[in-house]
């Protein structure tokens, strides 16, 4: 009976050892690489978010500059129109005095 008990204990110990090796294998060869991949993806995602935030800020700054340029162009266009009207009026006046 003692030999059977020892055999059962040895079998259980072998099964436990196999389970521990299996868990160790899974942890080393599956879980650890997946953890590393997740960490790398988190780093890439953080970098992409910062890059996108920087692009948004730059886009806003460019929009502000573009608005200023558009307003300036409109004012200059109005000024040119006013000068054309004045030139036309002066030409009419000149024609009256010549004619």
Can you walk me through this structure?
The protein has one helix and no strands. It has one helix spanning 2-98.
Summary tags:
rod-shaped, 99 residues, mainly alpha
Task: Summarize the topology.
Elements: H1 2-98
What can be said about this structure in brief?
By secondary structure, the chain is mainly alpha-helical.
String of helices and strands = H
How many β strands by DSSP? 0
- Summed up, the helix count is 1
> Whole-Å distance between the termini?
141 Å
Strand percent estimate = under 5%
Q: Taking all residues together, what is the mean pLDDT?
A: 89
Overall geometric form: rod-shaped
Query: What integer value in Å does the Rg equal?
Result: 42 Å
Query: Helix- and strand-based class?
Result: mainly alpha
Q: Spans of 5+ residues with little confidence (pLDDT < 50)?
A: none
The largest sheet is: none
Helix content: over 70%
